[in-house]
Amino acid sequence: MFNKVLIANRGEIALRVLRACKELGILTVAVHSTADADAMHVRLADESVCIGPPKAADSYLNIPSIVSACEITGADAVHPGYGFLSENARFADILTAHNITFIGPSGDHIRIMGDKIEAKETVERLGIPVVPGSKGAVASEADAARIADEIGYPVLVKAAAGGGGRGMKVAETAADLSSAFSTARAEAKSAFGDDAMYIEKYLGTPRHIEIQVLGDGQGNAVHLGERDCSLQRRHQKVWEEALSPALNDRQRKEIGETVSKAIADLGYSGVGTIEFLYEDGEFYFIEMNTRLQVEHPVTEAITGIDLVVEQLRVASGSPLSMTQDDITFSGHAIECRINAENPRTFAPSPGRITYYHPPGGLGVRVDSAVYQGYMIPPHYDSLIGKLIVHGRDRVECLMRLRRALDEFVVDGIQTTIPLFRDLLEQADIANGDYSIRWLEEFLAREHDKE
Ligand code: MV4
Predict the structure, then answer these.
(1) Whose CA is nearest to atom 6 of ligand 1?
(2) Which residues are catalytic?
(3) d(Cα 60, Cα 37) in Å, to the nearest integer?
(4) pLDDT tens, position by position, 253-294
(5) From ligand 1's centre to the CA of 278, what distance in Å?
(6) Alpha-carbon gap, residue 269 to 349, rounded angstroms
(7) Alpha helices in 62-115 (DSSP H)
């Protein structure tokens, strides 16, 4: 196992990683920008290094500063958390070249999954079902029109370098294709400097269901069930739950086994998430994330497995400590993302937390790095915490969530907590009856009421 791990992140995820390291007897190094000198991850780490000014590009994304911090402190591994450098293949390669372990998959696996065309080709070869669409990149508008006619409208034009919804346009009919293609392509060119495009059948009202996997790079892999992340706003997840209200045990076993076999065959090491759209009983792969995800605690709640501990174990060269038969799913878990935002407009609301009282009790977990008196800096994303509740079934989980939200007090700033109280009043939420469109339609209805 590692002696000392540097955590190349901030906020709640830096704390999450730090906790796993401490429980394994590993020393921790925090890095921070000048804006984060008072942050909790800095206070709780064994050592800390200031790596630059507030702007992320100059600190948390500054590879030379982070490598220097490793050399100064003698860290033998780096955990990247999520966001920032967590899916940067060059960072993984540079650390490896410096004899520092990147706690994550190989640079090559990150690179493959970062190119959405290559990712799709790769997983399709491994037996994972994908969305019908172009074979590889689409060269020209004429090519696009021919392929779209074959697939049938509506179609979605996507950027190979995209993900998270950027560089994506729907063409409802053949008449829309030319403008959809050129708009999406121009967007991709300016956002990513890469205008390779592909085309897919557009699915109208799917759910977003993702499968958590864990591989050891030695030919072993397991799946840890799915998370339903359909409740999103502008490609930001708001509420995640496990297991999905839409799947039965037979479907779960079938897609889970398909995915874990593919991940084993790929020789993948570390945690990963295979994202699917799910519509009319069918799964369609869209992307793979090669990092630990924000919503990983719902999977931890229903499996009892510490995903960060598993990351540390496989990154240090241990084979998987479990087989698929060791993994069972118990009860139901829901995560609410608590953002420092206006709960109606979602405008950021940084500032000082004047009073803070998190909920507690059986089945309640709060992952957060804030505290009473903490000043939320305006430079980073607005996630200030996650409330994760676990119950024996979904009904108990919903009741516990309502109770926990009622206990939660965050004063001095605006948060998304009131949104979750409203969501719990909705019959569709109580019934688990929602698609990727549900939340934006709900917010539009609420807006019209005012
Ligand atoms: C799609 C789709 C419908 N059909 N692909 C959005 C971001 C990127 N991860 C993939 N996305 C989508 N791909 C096909 N063929 C709809 C979306 C999509 C979406 C997906 C998951 C969660 C929320 C979403 C919101 C809008 C669009």
Answers:
(1) 165
(2) 291
(3) 13
(4) 999 999 999 999 999 999 999 999 999 999 999 999 999 999
(5) 11
(6) 38
(7) 63-73, 89-97, 107-114
- Count up the domains in the chain and report the number: 3
Question: How far is the centre of ligand 1, averaged over its atoms, from the C-alpha of 165 (Å)?
Answer: 7
215 and 197 in one domain?
A: no
Q: Give the end-to-end CA distance of the chain in Å, rounded to a whole number.
A: 57
* pLDDT in the model for residue 447: 86
- The pLDDT value given to residue 165: 77
How many CB atoms sit inside 10 A of residue 107's CB?
19
pLDDT of residue 167: 85
Does the reported pTM lie above 0.85? yes
Atom 11 in ligand 1: which residue has the minimum CA distance? 165
Give, using CA atoms, the residue closest to atom 27 of ligand 1: 165
Domain membership flag for residue 259: yes
- Provide the domain limits for residue 145: 132-201
| Tally of CB atoms within 10 A around 350 | 16
Residue 181 CA, ligand 1 centroid: distance in Å: 17
How many angstroms does the Cα of residue 443 sit away from the middle of ligand 1? Answer: 18
Residue 256 lies in a domain: yes
The per-residue pLDDT for 450 is 76
**Largest Cα–Cα separation, the chain:** 62
Looking at residue 445, the DSSP 8-state letter turns out to be H
> What pLDDT score does 434 carry?
98
Q: Which residues line ligand 1 (CB under 6 A)?
A: 131, 156, 163-165, 200-203, 208, 232, 235, 277, 286-287, 436
Q: Which of 156, 158, 286 to mutate to test the pocket of ligand 1 (most atoms within 8 A of CB)?
A: 286
Segments of the chain with pLDDT less than 50? none
pLDDT of residue 163: 75
CATH of the domain at 346: 3.30.470.20
Residue nearest to atom 16 of ligand 1 (CA): 203
Q: Which of 117, 147, 166, 168 to mutate to test the pocket of ligand 1 (most atoms within 8 A of CB)?
A: 168
Residue 379's pLDDT is 97
Domain contains 108? no
Neighbour-count burial of 450, counting CB atoms closer than 10 A to its CB (0-12 exposed, 13-18 middle, 19+ buried): exposed
Q: What is the CATH number of the domain that holds 89?
A: 3.40.50.20
349 and 406 assigned to the same domain: yes
